[in-house]
Amino acid sequence: MQTVEILQRVFGHDDFRTSQRAVIDHVMGRQHALVIMPTGMGKSLCYQVPALCDWRDDPPPAAPLTVVISPLIALMKDQVDALRRRGVEATFINSSLRRKERLQRYQEVADGRYPLLYVTPERFRKTEFQQVLAKRTIRLLAVDEAHCISEWGHDFRPDYTRLAEIRELMGNPTTIALTATATPDVQQDIVKQLGLDADEVALFHEGIDRPNLRLEVDEVWDIDDKLQHILAEVRPEVLGTGSGIVYFTLIRTLLEFSERLQNEGVRHVAYHGDLPRERRRAIQDRFMQGDEPLVLATNAFGMGIDKEDIRLVLHADLPGSMESYYQEIGRAGRDGLPSRCLLLFEQGDLATQMEFIGWSNPTSEFYHRVYHVLATEMEKVNAFGTDWLRDKLHFKQRHDHRMDTVLSMLDRYGVTEVDDKTGDLTLVSELPSALTDAERLAAKLRRDQEKLLALVNFVRHEGDRKAYIHDYFGLPYQTVNS
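Below the sequence we write its predicted structure tokens.
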């Protein structure tokens, strides 16, 4: 009864839907859970409601803390902002905070102010953060976007592989892992990486079917043909009173189509990662409020977007994997009304994605090469920046983005650190075997290529595309729809 009261009073819902009540009862019974639920079906309530129940039972300063591990800074900010609007004292701690603000939040967490704390997995590298957590009783650990735990997942984060160690550091609390997309292999790996046995974790699988979504694929032949297809979908008289998202792979392509749509008199906004943070936030807010019904975006847009009336998700370019495609179309039709998901396929898109796969899979030799430059010429790297490093590594091939991947992975594995005050990069450890094992890196490259091939096969599939997606994720299609 307490859970329903919190659901109604805090979140404004009359009753739970799908398996939310069963998951919450299971977690409040101090049992571990893996929850696979389509985007927009309310996964976050499965840990937010138990967190607030625990808080109500034991008020500050002795109140237990629920720690939520999330991979994306923007996503955790959106979730915390949403909770605060509902009167819930939640907070986040991540690298976006200045040192003074971060230390203040450390103190507030230690004092028992918050029932919910959102952090990235990388935060657990910090000794001062571990000391703060040691002052609290942590009853529940929620791992959001749990597919990031698995090397077989589509968005692997190395620090997620430390979750067994992180759980132990927190006293092995009840754990709930949540994701919208996980093949059977990924599900098994999630449980393993949490340091749990399969019989300790209950699986709550809502399937992936969204009956109100219409999935379509159109093949296009060139940029003009693609423009005409987009125009046919996004004009106000076609889009109606709802909203639409048009996804692009490359920023330069997005900007080109934005200019063409402007010339055609189609009102829209453009969102991509090169925009200042304040501008991105303003665009997202205007879209959420309905002031701008159409947004052209890279895949940087969408995490944390919970807008009910998105009637169209159009992929102007081929996504990189079935998981990415499914997650992005999941933003459509969250109100249950009919919505369209259209993917435009041009042969040239395949070459772009193959190039992306190459950039995201540097060889062992290239990792060693970058590490050597950092070890011997760090002073120049810090003085002249990444452009100097890119010139040093790639010479005339500046469009090669393997260096960006290497720098990101060195940070994720804790090989490098950035000084809070100066912004200088420093080496703090040797290259881990994960980044130097040629056989392991080759296996990852093959998996990424296989994921892209699966999406190409989906595009060319002549039967029921929803059945194809269910088969990919290892789910019986007829059973889910019965």
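The mean pLDDT is 88.
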